[in-house]
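> @MW can you paste both from yesterday?
MW: sure, first one:
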Amino acid sequence: MTTHKSSLGTATGLLASLLILAGCSVAPVYQRPDVATPAAFKEAPINATAPEAKPAAGDWKAAQPAEELARGEWWKVFNDSTLNQLQIEALAANQDLKAAAARLSQARALEQSARAGLFPQVSLGFGPTRQLPSPASRGLPPNADTNPVTIWRGQATIAYEADLFGRVSTVADAARFDAQRNAALFQSTLLALQADVAQAYFLIRELDATQVLYANTVRLRGETLNLFQRRFDAGDISELELARARTELAAAQSESLGITRQRAVAEHALAILLGKAPADFSFPSLPLTRLMVSVPAGLPSELLERRPDIAAAERAMAAANARIGAAKSAYFPRLNLTGSLGYESNDLSDLFKNASRTFVFGPLVGGLLTLPIFDGGTRAAGVDRANAAYEEDVANYRQTVLKAFKEVEDNLANLRLLDEQNKAQDSAVTSANRAARISAIQYREGALSYLGVLDADRSALQQQRAAVQLDGERARALVNLIRALGGGWQEQSATPTVSTASASTQSAAK
């Protein structure tokens, strides 16, 4: 009797010790790896990066960002009601965004499933079993006959794995970090969609502005051809000048059709972003004018908080770190507690009587406490794999940060140089237009051949088209910069500056 009590006390003490270990975890303490962060963006203006500098009047100033904050409607910085409406339509109907939302729901469901392992699993069962007991289980001779019996059972079964050394909780943590990673990836998809819609919108408007140039060119060259035809019929000019006029008109018409073709393709792309079939979408002509919006870059360290792809890469590291703990916990014992409580009887009518009560405590299958002794290196391989996966995610995180810095620097440089290029191009357009006017006067006075007029007209058209292309590139660079900065967290008092030159375009869009 004493021996029995001693054994029971030893088992109880061992079980209590193991339950205490349930709160212990062998997962490494997670710390976000350090990344080299410059003090300021190289391509940013000084007044946009110096901490003591204040933004210029009218600049769009981003508020202090954080990944958990909702991103602002950054496209409203362009003060364009048409673009605002397109963003609303894309948010409601884009299929890539719906797929990203579905992936996020899947990740959250997996997180819920993993966390369910921290709680006991309870199930109910009811039904009969038919069995033939062995003679030995009845204390009968080996050759004795036994009769099959039917046993009715109505029981509740409980199963629970104690969280020894954090095995269950680390798996749940990994699933939670994966869900957070998918939430960041959803934000990244959303930001990409918003930027793509703005890019497609400004591309169409750039092509519309180019189409206006060619429409005017075709009209003027058509009038010139009619004039030359009359002069040729009157014998005032040679057929060579008439042929040149026809050539220039046909060339302008061909280039105009090329712009129309490019616009059709861009319109189809915008339709897909809006979740519509190209046949069901038509965008009216809306020529682009120069946008003068200022977007301060802020400090590079803010980029680590703003960019959703960086947040996703960081959460992937946290999940990989938790999986290292899950892999290491395989070296330690597992405690599985199971039991059942209910009724069993030979007759269904006696099933729920007090005399039919029964319970079982302990592992219904396998052992209560299990510890693998030899597995041929399976556990060691699991730990090595988890460590290697973590190192991969660390490298991916640092590469994502470097890529983010590059994208910001690229677009800051684009905007800075585009401002200078716009000034030079405006001067070129002015000079080319003046040269075209002077050549036309000299031709009428007989001081210049028509070939000189054609060269001047071609140069003027080329410079005008280059100016329109630069306006389109600047609009897209603004969108790319905001996207590279991770979107917008605009303060309530922040008011963007839009040039008065584009105000007429915005009112026309309404």
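MW: second:
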Amino acid sequence: MFGIHDLALFVVSGLLLNIMPGPDSLLIMTRSATQGWRAGSAAALGIGTGTFVHIFAAALGLSAILATSAAAFTVVKLLGAAYILYLAVGMLLSRRGDGVEKTLTVSPLPLRRIYAQGILTNVLNPKVALFFLAFVPQFIDANAPHKALAFLILGAIFNINGMLWCHALALFTAQARARLKLNPAVTLWLNRATGGLFVWLGVKLALAKQH
């Protein structure tokens, strides 16, 4: 149907690819561990929104520009790296609160801001766009009458599966946090450790090559 083939293989492959750790997973786990499952869910929804942007862009051929234009790829890559490093700095600068008891605190972020972070970390990663251009067409017949529609359907399936995994990850992390009863000191250093990983991911993205 719609020129799509090997759908079961596509679903299984998509799930395995979504499980692989990356900046999206780190963002979800950090927000869930520090602010609960609602924050992790907000990050996951933002990531899903960003993924849909890539899916529509690839279906319309816009992502092909990133694959063929070195200048466009470099601009998006550097913007993405800069934003990831910006997030990293915020996490690394988590500090002691100024309350009477001088406890360690991490200021919670509004859910809408966490949602926006999820969108930007995904949209500003050109590797995601190139991934869809390389992966999805393998499951569309060369003679399919409506290739763009088939692409959108497969992209939606991939993203829905990804959202199921991301929300499960948010819930699992939040429950682990509740059971372990992380004190503010652990939460603070979790932010800093994740910030360090984001520095590495930002630098890695900045040095990424087009092919």
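> thanks! The chain has one domain: 7-206.
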